[in-house]
Amino acid sequence: MSRIYNFSAGPATLPEAVLQQAQDELLDWHGAGMSVMEMSHRGKEFMSIAEQAETDLREIMAIPDNYKVLFLQGGASSQFAMAPLNLMGRTGKADYINTGSWSKKAIAEARRYGEVNVIADTSSDFKAPAEEDLGFSRDAAYVHYTPNETIQGVEFPYIPDTGDIPLVADMSSTILSRPVDASKFGIIYAGAQKNIGPAGLTLVIIREDLIGHAPESCPAMLDYKIHADADSMYNTPPTYAWYLAGLVFQWLKDNGGLDAMAAINARKAAALYAAIDDLDFYANPVDPACRSRMNVPFTLADAGLDARFLEEAAQAGLKTLKGHRSVGGMRASIYNAMPEAGVQALIDFMHEFAQRNA
Ligand SMILES: *Cc1c(COP(=O)(O)O)cnc(C)c1O
């Protein structure tokens, strides 16, 4: 069978070396005589796995000491509620930037907890707002934004400078794709199933002074302090997903860390956008300055060919290219684990398909 490349937006492709190692260790982890899945989360074996994963992530992302790293459940969608629940109480207000589908969900959820000011809305424009157009409310408890809109394929080319107002970022589809200065953020959160590991794990990187502000009525499971005080073991954490994320962090370290990923990701994205731009047959709707390096939506000049494109691509081993229903066309998600050869195979197919159907 020829090589399959999976362009799914999430759950997404994982590094083959990681899956291979997980397979090797599946039945018997390091001589423990049991699978990681079967271990007590409080036993010394799993504790060592958990600690190593956090140490490696801190090293890869250069996370400052005054930040906690939490390994939670509930997905990024739970953070849409958890962030306002924990942070909004201080002023009852928060600023949100709306750049697309995931921003909208975060905004809708935050409105349950207080006053949401949408300070910029480019959600229909396939671009991020210009930095100089952003003005923040004096009494905002925090500013929330989505650095990479997974569905629209829109990525911020800058980090908003919010001064003393904590910046909260839903980094689900861009975390680990390049170095970021974590100290610029109050909270970074991400569902794992895009660029970290399997679904079921949610990473939260939170500055310590933002912990401990949840109201009395906050459910324990949604209180950052409860999880921080318990080292993410207040209840049973998603142990196997945590372990697999740890293997991905090791893989990132073995492969040059985030500087190396950034360079590879820039090459992959540039090659794919060049193919889209060079052929009249394809188009990408995003402002070139805000094109995502992780999620590349594209349309065919003749949408009547979409079904054939998808079918023939799948036959060529290029899977899960169907675009999100709200944008249409195709979407190629090219996270860290997508090899350059996979992107090249897609580009070759696009050229060939365009020639045959022009
Ligand atoms: C996938 C995604 C989500 C939703 O994540 P869940 O873990 O399914 O809740 C939220 N935000 C962004 C930017 C995403 O890409």
Record keyword descriptors for this entry.
three-stranded antiparallel beta sheet; about 35% helix; seven-stranded mixed beta sheet; alpha/beta; about 350 residues; Aspartate Aminotransferase, domain 2; Aspartate Aminotransferase, domain 1; globular; binds pyridoxal-5'-phosphate
Summarize the structure in short.
By secondary structure, the protein is an alpha/beta fold. It is built from nine helices and 14 strands.
Q: Secondary-structure blueprint of this entry?
A:
Elements: E1 5-6, H1 16-24, H2 44-61, E2 67-72, H3 75-87, E3 93-98, H4 101-110, E4 115-121, E5 143-145, E6 148-149, E7 154-155, E8 167-170, E9 187-191, E10 202-207, H5 224-229, H6 239-254, H7 257-278, E11 282-283, E12 295-300, H8 306-315, E13 318-319, E14 330-333, H9 340-357
Parallel strand pairs: 1-13, 3-4, 3-5, 5-8, 8-9
Antiparallel strand pairs: 2-10, 6-7, 9-10, 11-12, 12-14
Helix pairs in contact: 1-6, 2-6, 3-4, 7-9
Bound molecules: pyridoxal-5'-phosphate (PLP).
Residues 10, 75-77, 102, 146, 150, 170, 172-173, 191, 194 line the site of pyridoxal-5'-phosphate.
Instruction: Give the cofactors and ligands.
Output: pyridoxal-5'-phosphate
Q: How many beta-strand segments?
A: 14
Residue share in β-strands:
15-25%
3D shape: globular
Low-confidence stretches: none
**CATH superfamily annotation of the largest domain:** Type I PLP-dependent aspartate aminotransferase-like (Major domain)
Number of helices: 9
Q: What strand line-up does the widest sheet have? A: 2-10-9-8-5-3-4
User: Could you tell me the radius of gyration in angstroms?
Assistant: 21 Å
